[in-house]
C-alpha cells in the first residue's frame, strides 16, 4: 500500500491550514500542496504536478472548499512538481480574478505553463510589498534567493506561525506512517547516520541532508536561507516534500543543521 492510499484525505496542519498532497507513484517524491482557508475563501500554496491534480482537487473538495472560492495560487518557485497543474487549477477555479503569485524572477518561467492570454493572471509578490492579505489574514513572503531558484521564497502565516518552506526542509523520502516528523530522542546526537544504531532502515536526518546536498546549488545559498528563517518564531514548518515539522526542538535542530551543512550542490562536487 502506498502513502496516498494510507492518507487519502486532507490533513489539518494548523488552524485553517490543510495538507492536500499525495504520493507521486513510482517515485519517492512526496509532494505537499497546502490549502489556507480564510472564512469561505482559500489560497493554495505550491499546487502540485499535473499528475497530482485530480488527487489534490479531491482533497480540496473534501476540506469543503468550492474551487470557485480559491482566490490565489502561490508558487514559491517554478519547478513542475509544484507548478505543473497551474493551468488545470485556473480552469477548474473559474474565477476570472484569481491571482497567480510569485516573484518577478520566477514569473518568467511560470508563464511557460500558461497560454499567452493568461499571462496577466501572474502577479509579482514584490508589487504587494511581499505580503498578501485575505480577510485580515496576512501571509508574508521571505526571499530565499538561489534556494533553489533565483526567485525562490518562503511564506509565513503569522496567525499560526506556520512557515511554508517549499523545497527547504524537504526530503526525497518520508515516513510512510505519518505526514508529521517524528524524530526519536537519540537521533539529535547520533553520529552514525549511514548506519542507524537502532537498526532502522530510514534515517530522516540523512534523508534531509541528502536532499539539500542534491537540490540546493551551494552552501552559501542554503546557509543564507537558514539565516533568514532563523529570525522568525516558527511553530510549524510545512515543506513541499517530506514530513511536516511541528516540534520546536526539531525546527531549531534542522535550522541549525542546514545552516551549516557542507558539500551542498557545487560545493560537494569540486
Ligand atoms: Fe524545486
Ligand atoms: Fe520540489
Walk me through this protein's architecture:
The chain has eight helices and 14 strands. The protein has 270 residues and is α/β, with parallel strands linked by helices. It has a single domain, classed as 4-Layer Sandwich (Metallo-beta-lactamase, Chain A). The strands form three sheets. A seven-stranded mixed beta sheet has the order 1-2-5-6-7-8-9. Strand 8, helix 5 and strand 9 form a beta-alpha-beta unit. The termini are far apart. The N terminus is likely disordered. The structure holds fe (ii) ion (2 copies). The site of one fe (ii) ion (FE2) has 4 residues, from loops.
Count of discrete alpha- or pi-helical segments spanning 4 or more residues: 8
Number of strands: 14
Beginning-to-end CA distance, first to last residue: 41 Å
Structural class: alpha/beta
The CATH homologous superfamily is termed Ribonuclease Z/Hydroxyacylglutathione hydrolase-like
What Rg is obtained from the alpha carbons, in whole angstroms?
A: 18 Å
Anisotropy-based shape:
globular
Bound molecules: fe (ii) ion
Please bin the fraction of helical residues. 25-40%
Q: Hey, roughly how much beta strand do the residues contain?
A: 15-25%
Question: In the CATH classification, which architecture applies?
Answer: 4-Layer Sandwich
Q: Which series of helices and strands comes N to C? A: HEEEEEEHEHHEHEEEEEHHEH
Major sheet description? 7 strands, mixed
Q: What is the CATH topology assignment?
A: Metallo-beta-lactamase, Chain A
How many structural domains in the coordinates?
Answer: 1
What ranges have pLDDT less than 50 throughout 5 or more consecutive residues?
1-5
- Which quaternary structure do these chains form? single chain
Strand order of the largest sheet: 1-2-5-6-7-8-9
Averaged pLDDT, please?
93
Q: Using the coordinates above, name the CATH class.
A: Alpha Beta
Amino acid at each position: 500500500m502506498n502513502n496516498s492510499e494510507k492518507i487519502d484525505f486532507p490533513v489539518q496542519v494548523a488552524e485553517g491550514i490543510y495538507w492536500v498532497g499525495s504520493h507521486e507513484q513510482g517515485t519517492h517524491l512526496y509532494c505537499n500542496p497546502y490549502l489556507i482557508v480564510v472564512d469561505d475563501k482559500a489560497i493554495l500554496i505550491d499546487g502540485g504536478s499535473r499528475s497530482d491534480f485530480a488527487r489534490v482537487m479531491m482533497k480540496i473538495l473534501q476540506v469543503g472548499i468550492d474551487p470557485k472560492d480559491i482566490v490565489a495560487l502561490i508558487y514559491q518557485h517554478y519547478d513542475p512538481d509544484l507548478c505543473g497543474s497551474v493551468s488545470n487549477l485556473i480552469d477548474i477555479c473559474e474565477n476570472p480574478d484569481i491571482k497567480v503569485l510569485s516573484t518577478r524572477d520566477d514569473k518568467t518561467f511560470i508563464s511557460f505553463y500558461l497560454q499567452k492570454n493568461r499571462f496577466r493572471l501572474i502577479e509579482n509578490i514584490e508589487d504587494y510589498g511581499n505580503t498578501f492579505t485575505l480577510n485580515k489574514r496576512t501571509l508574508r513572503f521571505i526571499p530565499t534567493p538561489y534556494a533553489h531558484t533565483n526567485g525562490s521564497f518562503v511564506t509565513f502565516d503569522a496567525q499560526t506561525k506556520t512557515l511554508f518552506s517549499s523545497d527547504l526542509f524537504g526530503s526525497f523520502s518520508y515516513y510512510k506512517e505519518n505526514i508529521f516528523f517524528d524524530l526519536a530522542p537519540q537521533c539529535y546526537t547520533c553520529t552514525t547516520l549511514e548506519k542507524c544504531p537502532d537498526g532502522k532502515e530510514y534515517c530522516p536526518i540523512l534523508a534531509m541532508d541528502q536532499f539539500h546536498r542534491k537540490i540546493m546549488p551551494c552552501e552559501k545559498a542554503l546557509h543564507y536561507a537558514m539565516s533568514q528563517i532563523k529570525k522568525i518564531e516558527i511553530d510549524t514548518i510545512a515543506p513541499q516534500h517530506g514530513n511536516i515539522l511541528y516540534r520546536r526542538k526539531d525546527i531549531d535542530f534542522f535550522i541549525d543543521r542546514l545552516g551549516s551543512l557542507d558539500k551542498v550542490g557545487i560545493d560537494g562536487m569540486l
